[in-house]
């Protein structure tokens, strides 16, 4: 089944966006929406390291002083000079000075020592760090963000076929990034998968965590912590027998574990007497991917994201590039247009936005980006999206001369009237940030979509690439089997509607997860109203690009 673009769903994304992560520099999502938007991580990196190091240094100095004091008390007590042992000697206690000193030691000194032992001042330093973070006006990631980052990793793994061991060894897309994950890190990724009811990845990562703690000295996680998750994932993957064996082991290595015994009984109840009694003959582990999603479309999407585009040699023989100079102004500085395909028409405008303009757009958009928690259309579950932004990610024409200029340019590029188009929308994709297959137009049944705008449906989309991710992050068309990698300064353009106003389902598209690097895009959605003389509608659908790929001339 296809999950079509659902406008109400997006309304929820925009208006119901979780504000948890962000003010000032508001966060989009993440490693999506793992999760944290790259722009936030960059900001965090900027000041955070120095400040934390400084506060930690101060804390360590104060702790060192405190422990030194305690040590000198200990030495004093031990030292023969103090004749503390003599306290046991009746004669010593009868000496008033000694008696006084002994009492002092046992009262005020002891109070001082116990105070010293208790007052490690951690709270004070933690408060300092917290305050400093608030002053920074950067929202720091929380547990939810960590979860999102983990889910982002899993998505990357699926999309780009990244092996769990490689990832844990810090090998991303064949490059060693120098950092490796500990058993505890792997456990956390597995736990995020478990919380998302993704038992395929739970199993993968818990296995990796087990492998790692076996060779770590000291292990970063207890085996018993891992086993419970691992066993449950095995059970979910149809292997209660192995789940039972592992849970028995759990009960053995951690006899006080609060759930181990109960779980053993529970797994036993899943097995026939015959299976229960013979626990040597274990079925192999069959780990299958999560099937809650539209697996067919997902596979197409992921394949395209890996760059496996479909070739259409006939089409390729017809496409071409041209200079668009159909207005006086353009005679001096024509647009460079590359036609990717016809029917439906998809083109790339080369070098249509400058570095300066990009920097302004990013600057204007950054305080508005927010992370969103979105509802998965299929499963109804909430997912953290590090790919979407709040409604306030829109940039209005009058906000800055650069925005105005870009809007004027879109008119020249597309020959479509900009008066009814939506404001420029900016998105910053974080680790694993992506956008599932969707349509930009509202479907017939979505009768209320764009109603308040009163401008009709989205006739066309212009997508400016405002950065160039190192790997991943392609825009792909799942029905057409093609895609394109973002090239900074360029813009992708297509019509969403056929000439009779019908939504063109061939335009279904998606943004692939960013594997390395950063992806910024700006979207311009152009509406039907106002195009009566620009792209007049027709009685049939296929008048479509009789204009042979030229954007409808004025
Ligand atoms: O970022 C991309 O490549 C596509 C974004 C998109 O489809 C959208 O924002 O509607
Ligand atoms: Fe889109």
UniProtKB/TrEMBL annotation:
UniProt-recorded Gene Ontology molecular function terms: iron ion binding; L-ascorbic acid binding; procollagen-proline 4-dioxygenase activity
One GO cellular component term noted in the UniProt record for this chain: endoplasmic reticulum lumen
Keywords: Dioxygenase, Endoplasmic reticulum, Glycoprotein, Iron, Metal-binding, Oxidoreductase, Vitamin C
Official protein name in the record: procollagen-proline 4-dioxygenase
Domain of life where this protein originates: Eukaryota
Residue ranges constituting the Fe2OG dioxygenase domain according to the UniProt record: 420-528
Family named by the database record: Belongs to the P4HA family.
Known role: Catalyzes the post-translational formation of 4-hydroxyproline in -Xaa-Pro-Gly- sequences in collagens and other proteins.
Source organism: Acrobeloides nanus
Keyword Oxidoreductase among UniProt keywords: yes
Necessary cofactors: L-ascorbate
UniProt EC number: 1.14.11.2
SMART domains: P4Hc
InterPro entries membership: Oxoglu/Fe-dep_dioxygenase_dom, P4H_N, P4HA-like, Pro_4_hyd_alph, Pro_4_hyd_alph_FE2OG_OXY, TPR-like_helical_dom_sf, TPR_P4H
Subcellular location: Endoplasmic reticulum lumen
Keyword flag Signal: no
């Amino acid at each position: 089944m296809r999950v079509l673009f659902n406008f109400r769903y997006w309304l929820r994304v925009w208006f119901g966006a979780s504000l948890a992560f962000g003010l000032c520099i508001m966060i989009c999502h993440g490693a999506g929406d793992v999760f944290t938007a790259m722009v936030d991580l960059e900001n965090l990196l900027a000041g955070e390291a120095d400040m934390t190091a400084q506060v930690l240094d101060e804390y360590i100095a104060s702790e060192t002083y405190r422990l030194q004091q305690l040590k000198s008390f200990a030495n004093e007590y031990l030292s023969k000079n103090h004749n503390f042992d003599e306290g046991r000697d009746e004669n010593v206690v009868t000496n008033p000075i000694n008696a006084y000193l002994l009492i002092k030691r046992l009262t005020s000194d002891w109070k001082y020592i116990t105070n010293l032992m208790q007052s490690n001042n951690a709270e004070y330093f933690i408060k300092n760090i917290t305050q400093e973070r608030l002053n920074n006006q950067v929202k720091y990631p929380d547990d939810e963000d960590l979860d999102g980052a983990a889910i982002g990793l899993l998505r990357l793994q699926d999309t780009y076929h990244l092996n769990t061991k490689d990832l844990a060894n810090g090998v991303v897309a064949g490059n060693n990034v120098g950092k490796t994950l500990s058993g505890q890190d792997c456990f956390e990724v597995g736990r995020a998968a478990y919380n998302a009811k993704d038992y395929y990845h739970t199993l993968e990562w818990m296995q990796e965590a087990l492998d790692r703690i076996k060779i770590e000295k000291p292990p970063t996680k207890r085996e018993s912590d891992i086993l419970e998750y691992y066993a449950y994932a095995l059970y979910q993957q149809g292997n209660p027998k192995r789940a039972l064996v592992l849970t028995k082991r759990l009960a053995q290595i951690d006899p006080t574990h609060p759930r181990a015994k109960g779980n053993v009984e529970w797994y036993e109840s899943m097995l026939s007497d015959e299976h229960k009694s013979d626990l040597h003959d274990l079925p192999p582990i069959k780990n299958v991917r999560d099937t809650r999603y539209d697996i067919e479309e997902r596979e197409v999407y992921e394949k395209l994201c890996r760059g496996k585009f479909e070739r259409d040699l006939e089409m390729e023989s017809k496409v071409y590039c041209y200079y668009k100079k159909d207005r006086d102004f353009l005679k001096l500085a024509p647009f460079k247009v590359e036609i990717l395909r016809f029917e439906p028409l998809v083109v790339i405008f080369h070098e249509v936005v400058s570095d300066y303009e990009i920097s302004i757009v990013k600057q204007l958009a950054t305080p508005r980006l927010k992370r969103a928690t979105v509802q998965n259309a299929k499963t109804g579950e909430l997912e953290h999206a590090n790919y979407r932004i709040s409604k306030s990610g829109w940039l209005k024409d009058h906000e800055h001369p650069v925005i105005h200029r870009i809007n004027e340019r879109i008119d020249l590029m597309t020959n479509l009237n900009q008066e009814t188009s939506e404001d420029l929308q900016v998105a910053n994709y974080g680790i694993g940030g992506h956008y599932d297959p969707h349509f930009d137009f509202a479907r017939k049944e979505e009768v209320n979509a764009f109603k308040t705008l009163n401008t009709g449906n989205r006739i066309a989309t212009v997508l400016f690439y405002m950065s160039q991710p190192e790997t991943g992050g392609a825009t792909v068309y799942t029905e057409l089997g093609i895609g394109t990698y973002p090239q900074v300064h360029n813009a992708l353009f297509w019509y969403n509607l056929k000439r009779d106003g019908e939504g063109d389902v061939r335009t279904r598209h998606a943004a692939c997860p960013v594997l390395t690097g950063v992806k910024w895009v700006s979207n311009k959605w152009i509406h039907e109203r106002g195009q009566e003389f620009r792209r007049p509608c027709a009685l049939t659908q296929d008048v479509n690009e009789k204009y042979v790929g030229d954007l409808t001339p004025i």
